[in-house]
Amino acid sequence: YYALFAFDATWALIKSLEELYSLQTNNSSSFLSFDESSFCFDFRFHQYDLLLSILARTNFLGVSGPVQFGKNATDRINGSYYSLKNVQSSVNGLNFVLVLEYSGSGHWRVPVTKSYIIWPGNSVTPSVDRATLQGVNLRIGVLAITPFTIVQNVTNDNGQITRQYIGYMPDLIQLLTYQIGFNATIILIPSNQTYAEIIQLVNKGIYDMIVADVTVTALRRQLVGFSNPIFDNSLSLVVKKTSYKSIDLLAFLRPFSRKLWVLALATCIYAGILMCFIERADNEDLQNRPIISQLTLSIWYCFGNIVGYGVEFNASTAAGRFLTAGLYILSLILVASYTANLASDLTIAKSQFIISGIDDIKNGKVPIHR
């Protein structure tokens, strides 16, 4: 078939040159002029632009099919041809046998001379990429553990007693047999077998697999293979959450300890006494007042600067301003610490759980009547 494409390519060039010759006015041989050069890539045809445009318009029925080109592609329109060959062995060695072909129709088709695809293993059936269990008989061991596997003795109409398995594991095995297609023979594992011994039985081939609540460990993985966990057997404690909480009217005092509150109050009173003695002679707001009024107003001045509220008068002396600056720094530290501790206490109170583990129940943290 390569000769068919070569013939159509040659014929397309002949038809294009014929049309190019007919376009010449004098029908002379000048249309075949070239730029001669000793180097092959510099040897150019003068009318190559016109020849390419004629080739792009070529449209005829060739021996390999329709020959036509598109505007934005160099391949033929409906002219692509691919062959799929199968490597097959014979007495003479390996042969490449044509089994499918593609000729631009959009679909693979069987050639005129039909040949079957030989898959690995000298089979005409397509192979799969994994081992399948369809139709395979499997011995599956189960443990009589409620609610995973419950063993019941059922008496039929003839009076015969048969063993019946119900529960999560038998239902899972039934689902697997339906979806995968293997034949399951369920075998009840004796109750005196430990989990380590059961793993050994699978390793020795006594059971093909076991479906039970087996813990995955590194040592067991060296002996057998485990599937992904299909059941979470973790235990949880469910306790009713108390919606009522007693209201503590003094909760706003919790961010600071009792000693710190006493120290802050003492600092405020002491700073007020100092401010009274420093400012009483020079500050007009403190003059012409009784000593008790001066002391009270000075303490109020210190309290207002500590909490960031501000007061009605300002310090007039250098010593008073220096004391005020110290009160501003103390205010910055106390207010920032109080705000952070109060926000932390409120957050913990909202997210605090009744119990944190089994030890809280053992220690009697949860009342019996709950």
Please provide a written account of the structure.
The chain has a three-stranded parallel beta sheet with strand order 10-7-11, with helices on one face. It has nine helices and eleven strands. The protein has helices at residues 2-22, 48-56, 168-180, 195-204, 218-221, 258-279, 291-307, 318-351, 358-362; strands at 34-35, 44-45, 59-62, 65-68, 82-90, 93-102, 137-142, 150-155, 161-166, 183-188, 209-211. The relative contact order is 0.05. It folds into four domains: 2-68, no CATH class; 83-127, no CATH class; 137-221, Periplasmic binding protein-like II (D-Maltodextrin-Binding Protein, domain 2); 251-351, Helix Hairpins (Orthogonal Bundle). The two termini are 90 Å apart. Helix content is 36%, strand content 16%. It is of the alpha/beta class. The longest helix has 34 residues, at 318-351.
List keywords for this structure.
alpha/beta; D-Maltodextrin-Binding Protein, domain 2; three-stranded parallel β-sheet; two-stranded antiparallel ribbon; 9 helices
Total number of helical segments? 9
Based on helices, strands and strand pairing, what is the structural class?
alpha/beta
What letter string, H or E per element, gives the SSE order? HEEHEEEEEEEHEHEHHHHH
The chain-level mean pLDDT equals 81
Query: Which range does the strand content fall in?
Result: 15-25%
Strand order of the largest sheet: 10-7-11
End-to-end distance, in Å? 90 Å
Shape: flat
Task: Indicate the percent of residues in helices.
Answer: 25-40%
Q: Measured on Cα atoms, how large is the radius of gyration? A: 49 Å
Count of DSSP E strands?
11
Q: Let me know the largest β-sheet.
A: 3 strands, parallel
Which stretches are low in confidence, meaning pLDDT under 50 for 5 or more residues running?
Answer: none
Overall CATH class of the largest domain: Mainly Alpha
